[in-house]
Fold each of these.
Amino acid sequence: MIRTALFLLFTLLIVPITVYLYGSPLTGEQVNVLSKLVRMYALMAGICFLTGEITRNYSQVDKLWSIVPILYAWLATEWAGWPPRMLLMSLLITLWGVRLTFNFARRGGYTWPLWGGEEDYRWAVLRAKPGLNKPLIWSLFNLLFICYYQMGLILLFTLPVVAAMSHSTKPLGAWDGILSALFLAFLVLETVADQQQWNYQNRKKAGIESGKGFLDRGLWGIVRHPNYASEQAIWILIYGFSVVSSGQWINWSIGGCLLLLLLFKGSSDFSEEISAKKYPEYARYQQTVGRFFPQLSRSKRVVSGEISR
């Protein structure tokens, strides 16, 4: 637990501070906007913690994951006076959020009362692990990682919108169009991947896919996590707008997309550990299909089943 805490402290604090010191300093307007967003983050993370502890449903952050970035982006855009690039970024983030919110809702993520709904199955697995199965330790994990770390990450990967404020008068150009087109392409890929997973799960429940355990067809036959791969690409592209705006390949808002890559690496490791224990064929699937990138050459597979998300 101590090593985990130190790693989280490094990623959440040291990485953003380092890139902040490396790049151009924030303007007074950016500092003002950022301070408002940080206060909102602290409040929402605290509410998620208290709600999770009271209800014993620890997926409260999941309910806000697709909504809060939209809120952050539009507030920053309004406070900056609606510059075109920030407006474009906010529109793209809204499309991303609507898609993800819909996908989460149809899986039972939102119910009434709002603190109910589906809990991520991985939290139950983690709660049973030695070291985390004590109530006090789990509450600390809920406070530090599930709530404040993840909500902090949401804020960080949305900050390229704030970074674009300092160059808000720079007109939109060809690179903005290219980034937007790539963003929409990955959004479509993620939508298709989730729909394929949804269709497969429903067929399993209906008994049509009896005997199969994990999905390995369609996009899932090209990479093991097409939805994760698209999600990471989307937020790297959002960071790309801050590069176009500032003219700097590395600026203070890069920490969010870097930390998101680490999160998806850890999340996919954990999901695949569970899948490998459930399905003997999963090890072969891992050997023949790339995690986030297609393998250049792979042998003919005879595997079947469900990737956990």
Amino acid sequence: MERKNIWTTYTEADLAALESLCGTYRDFLDHGKTERECVSRTEELARKNGYRRIEEIRSAGETLKPGMKVYALNRRKAAALFQIGKRPLTEGMRILGAHIDSPRLDLKQNPLYEDSQMAYLDTHYYGGVKKYQWVTIPLALHGVVAKKDGSVIPVTIGDRADDPVLCVTDLLIHLASEQMEKKARVVIEGENLDVLIGSRPVKKTASGEATEESETAAEDKEKENASVREGILRILKDAYQMEEEDFLSAELEVVPAMNARDCGLDRSMIAAYGQDDRVCAYTSLAALLDTPVQEYTSCALLVDKEEIGSVGATGMHSRFFENTVAELLELSGVSGTDLALRRTLSSSRMLSSDVSAAYDPLYASAFEKKNSAFFGRGLVFNKYTGARGKSGSNDADAEYMAWIRRTMDDADVAWQTAELGKIDLGGGGTIAYISAVYGMDVIDSGVAVLSMHAPMEITSKADIYEAKKGYEAFLRAEE
């Protein structure tokens, strides 16, 4: 059942639509390197398309009607968008669920230190990473600083053309004989993923102000009073009104300092950070925004914390989605909300929109070829994920898989099926098994990715295009 490469079937109109979608997708990636930035961009696009916050509807005393567009935010790190359908909510929804967090380096709460007149930020890696991939590449700092007065200051350093970049250093090859004997998982230790941020000492004057160190003989005697750390704190205070203690209430993420780029001489691919899972998040969002009102309520759910188990108040294990649907029912005038909520969720259908591993011929031994996803062959469906004996998996039933087949084929969507590599080599999970607890039909679907979880991941433009088509087909399916 080998699938054909879809590139050879595209018309000029298809190619134009494909490039337009991929252009807006690259822009989304460049403006969404953290989950907070993704939510901000999502809200901006939603409001441009007529979506209103649930709180606005409630405050205005309005009742939800078919065609109305609403959204909810969770701590500005997760979002749920709904277009109310013609049928009652209790008959179910069509849900596209993706995550917007990605592997990265998080700053510890007390990160700033100096050693040998070099200043560093101490980090704790987030999600599944190959630690050696994060050394000697240009890095940026993104996030927020929450002040005690309640203000929240956004921080972005390293992405603009005139910005400095940060980096994690590595041992030079000339002295690395012992390092080269280590296994890949320990060749770079987690505690050594500290980010170099400065080397220019300043000294305190009599007035207490920091000044650049002079090289005169007289001031050389005072070098012990010079501090790179003090200079960094001054820069942070000038730029962000930030004191050192403000690190205690900051969420600052170290991410690759690179923009999304076309990849390949034929420009058939996209290379960028964070495509797991923002490629599915964006195509889900774009599909919802481009879909008119349908029989069933349409939903795009973008959540946080999937890379560390979907935990916490902003992960899929939280009650954010459940609570938001309860709000929708109340605003729709439905009585007996608890039972209605259960009926709504159990009657719904969902695509857990998450990426798949693309077959890589350079590492063919890790894949079972006839059950692998390939570039250029369309949207990928994973009936189950999990590890080894399907541990941690949502295993979609045959009837739902048959409905998916019909829905995709009727809409002329290119699609394929896959597993995550050979059975005993590892595995992975998604948010699918969490949503399935409600009794709804759920299956994993997404875009195939090369170099998944690396600082730069690669996707096929054709697969991105087919993913959006497939998500639209899912939202439009009536039965």
Amino acid sequence: MYRKNAWEHLADGERAKVMAFAEKYKAYLDAGKTERECVTEAVRLAKEAGFSDLNAILREGKPLQAGDRVYQAWMGKCIMLFIIGEKDIECGMNILGAHIDSPRIDIKQNPLYEDSGFAYLDTHYYGGIKKYQWVATPLALHGVVCKTDGSTITVSIGENEGDPVFYISDLLIHLAGDQMGKSAAKVIEGEQLNIIIGSEPVKEEDKWNVKANVLRLLKEQYGIEEEDFVSAEIEAVPAGKCRDVGFDRSMIGGYGHDDRVCAYPSMAALLDFEGTPAYTLCALLTDKEEIGSVGATGMNAKYFENTMAEIIANVKGTESNLVLRRCLRNSRMLSSDVSAGFDPNFAGCFEKKNASIVGNGVTFNKFTGSRGKGGSNDCNAEFVAMVRRICEDAGICWQTAELGAVDVGGGGTIAYICANYGMNVIDAGLPVLSMHAPWELISKVDLWMEYKCYCAFIKDAEEISY
């Protein structure tokens, strides 16, 4: 099967659109290094685009009409955007679903300690990472500290000019004979991911103490006490902005492409939609996919279902569990998540005919999971055919892929969870190199084709008869 290189198939003047959209995405990626920051930025963009807070509409008892644009943020870590369609909501929705959490290093609840002249924060890594990639690199701290008086302190340290950064040390090569003989999984272990945050002591009760000095600075500069770490969510992420990569500036290197490179185009497709859609549209940006979609903000929770129940009760004027079930069953969804980009340096981990090639456009994964399709959503051929038609009609460069060679590994997305409702779902994203590393790599033309695919899907996807 011949795959089109997307750069070669851009229309006259389209390259400028590729580059302009990439700049908007880069701004979003820099503004959203945590799921909370992604939601904050999404709310800002939604309001600018004329979306209203669904909670305010429900409180006012205002009925939703076709063409209305609303959003619902959930616990500050998830957000759903809707455009109400002309058709009965029982006919289902066209949904773009992505996740906005990314692998990182979380600060523990009792983290602060001193050892041999250094003050440290103890950590627990989040999601699947190669731990050795996170040492000897500048880190920033992002998150919130919730105090017992009800106030919340927002933390973002290490991104602005003049900010300090933070650091996890590695063993110098001169003493690393034993370390270099270990497997990559053991070179750096989880309990060695301790972040250096200070080394200057202050005199306290006739003793010099580095930890006491850090606590003094935390109190003076941020109003944070040691006990406040218990009710804090602070994440250590790579410091600095994403960057263009290559002499041709055709790629973007940055933290969090997985899965914000799908979340932003999903949201942008709704923000940019003009007019009133036939079917109700939804962009669903969720949390905790990297650790199994668990918890109150993961896709396994009921917040999406509950929000749909509220919308249906408003639109239909009555509560109906049956209508809710029909709506979800009849919906069509692109589970917008990234794919493993074929890397010539590690070609043996892929089966190239069924690998996602950087620069060849948006990628569809009929199934993810691992080995014998375990844990996958193996979507129906009828739905794949519809997606093919939509892309071909819109002139979109697309490809299909599996997540690596059959017995090498695998991974999952939120697709199988949404498929539990009975809806048609397929994974649709783009190829990423160095996935889950502190810096990942994507192609700008793939990003553009992904956005065009999402725009075409929400406009043209329709019910399938079996």
